[in-house]
């Protein structure tokens, strides 16, 4: 791993911007499209682009049924389910709040990895990061939601469920997946498109009653082209060049960028409560994903950073 070039830095910033902006664009898309339609369109565009790049690079999808099972698991947990949950949640939750809630995804990954992967036992540092991250979510959701009275509780829970899906996908990839990253991205994205096509067919969505204007189609194309396809390709390009540690720092930029874009583009509130929760969550991500510390039991290593390749 060499020193980051100017192009690498530009690509890193572009990646952070693509993932940060996805929440604001989803909010725009769900104003006129049903969640299943928006997600299916996004996945279809992204899968076609990534599959084309994979073939151009001389790779192909495996014919092994076990590998196709891994495509299915990662497609469901890493793309179809969280995309649908986030899009459904943003029908009632604004994009700034959604992006901050999604900042808990690395913390969820640390907790799940410590539970399921023996080599990734908890350290004092990651334990503090997990507690801090969950505390930040509690501050963000607020006491009204904890009492079952929050007007946005259903949407908030859907977005938190999406973070659990990303965590489960990441842990599964660490434990079971050995295929090349670009092949996995293409296979999982194609499988996710198939899943969402079935969901759309069963949802009874009234396509004829939806507004497929410039704004709606623009949201679908932006999410598919930039937040899904280009973001995945940039991520897979940068990881071997910058290393996992430096790439993990994108976790700091996504909730911050998402919150500010929601404020600047959509006029969403940046309340004191949200800023405090954002600071707690970002600090917790830093504690959980930064340099190794001594494990609580004297063995193992802390979990690596979350793999946020599908926002």
UniProtKB/TrEMBL annotation:
Report the residue ranges that make up the EamA domain in this protein.
10-141, 155-287
The protein's predominant localisation is: membrane
Its membrane topology, per UniProt? Multi-pass membrane protein
Q: Which key words are in the record?
A: Membrane, Transmembrane, Transmembrane helix
Q: Where in the cell is it found?
A: Membrane
Claim: Repressor is one of the keywords in the record: no
Q: Which Pfam families match?
A: EamA (PF00892)
Q: Which residues cross the membrane?
A: 34-54, 66-85, 97-116, 128-147, 153-173, 185-207, 219-238, 250-266
Designated name of the protein = EamA family transporter
